[in-house]
């Protein structure tokens, strides 16, 4: 049975692709650990500063600590958002239409400036991420296939099953 997918690669797809690549490379766990450690350090610093302010009996509202934590978290997430939105226009597939054909023997893809034919054995694995699947050609390279690229939910499920039968399943992330 043959299945096809066709879609225009947009910013949300770029974000999902970057997320899948970071999960596959193992950096996501380290980044998450760093983020938690940074929040803990800020929490400790805020606790010490609050205790120092209380000893000096300065009139500082109690909600100041919560405001500082919200600002720090907002800045950390904001930097990630800005980095992705600045890098997207430089991505070779940004705003371009991508087409894929899936068969029992492999995948035929047509991307901007590139046509390729791959056997399933050249795909390292498949990962479910939100409403898409990522087919990894290597640790640093993947194709993103959102549900909307397929003509029906059954086609998406069939391709996902075909990919899992012919490659390694790398996990599901929501």
List the topology elements.
Layout: E1 3-8, H1 11-25, H2 27-56, H3 64-87, E2 97-102, E3 106-111, E4 114-119, E5 125-129, E6 132-138, E7 141-146, H4 153-166, E8 168-173
Parallel strand pairs: 5-8
Antiparallel strand pairs: 1-2, 2-3, 3-4, 5-6, 6-7
State the main characteristics:
28% strand, 174 residues, four-stranded mixed sheet, alpha+beta, 4 helices, 8 strands, elongated, four-stranded antiparallel sheet
Structure, explained:
With 174 residues, the protein is an alpha+beta fold. The chain is built from four helices and eight strands, in the order βαααββββββαβ. A four-stranded antiparallel beta sheet has the order 1-2-3-4, with helices on one face. A four-stranded mixed beta sheet has the order 7-6-5-8, with helices on both faces. Helix 2 runs antiparallel to helix 3. The longest helix has 30 residues. The protein starts with a strand and ends with a strand.
Total helical segments: 4
Instruction: Outline the low-pLDDT stretches.
Output: none
Q: Give the averaged pLDDT, no decimals.
A: 80
| Strands, count | 8
Shape: elongated
Instruction: Give me the strand/helix succession.
Output: EHHHEEEEEEHE
Q: Using the CA coordinates, give the radius of gyration.
A: 22 Å
Query: Main beta sheet, described?
Result: 4 strands, antiparallel
Q: Give, in spatial order, the strands making up the sheet with the most strands.
A: 1-2-3-4
Distance between the termini: 29 Å
Helix content: 40-55%
Query: How large a portion of the residues is in β-strands, by DSSP E?
Result: 25-35%
Secondary-structure-based class equals alpha+beta
């Amino acid at each position: 049975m043959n299945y096809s997918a066709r879609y225009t690669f947009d910013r949300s797809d770029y974000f999902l692709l970057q997320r899948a690549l970071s999960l596959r490379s193992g950096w996501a766990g380290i980044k998450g650990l760093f983020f938690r450690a940074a929040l803990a350090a800020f929490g400790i610093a805020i606790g010490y500063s609050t205790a120092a302010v209380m000893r000096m009996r300065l009139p500082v509202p109690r909600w100041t600590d919560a405001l500082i934590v919200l600002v720090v978290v907002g800045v950390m997430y904001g930097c990630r958002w800005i980095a992705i939105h600045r890098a997207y226009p430089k991505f070779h597939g940004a705003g371009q239409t991508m087409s894929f054909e899936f068969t029992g023997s492999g995948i035929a893809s047509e991307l901007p400036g590139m046509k390729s034919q791959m056997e399933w054995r050249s795909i390292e694995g498949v990962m479910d991420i939100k409403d898409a699947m990522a087919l990894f050609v290597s640790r640093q390279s993947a194709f993103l296939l959102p549900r909307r690229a397929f003509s029906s939910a059954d086609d998406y499920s069939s391709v996902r099953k075909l990919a899992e039968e012919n490659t390694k399943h790398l996990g599901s992330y929501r």
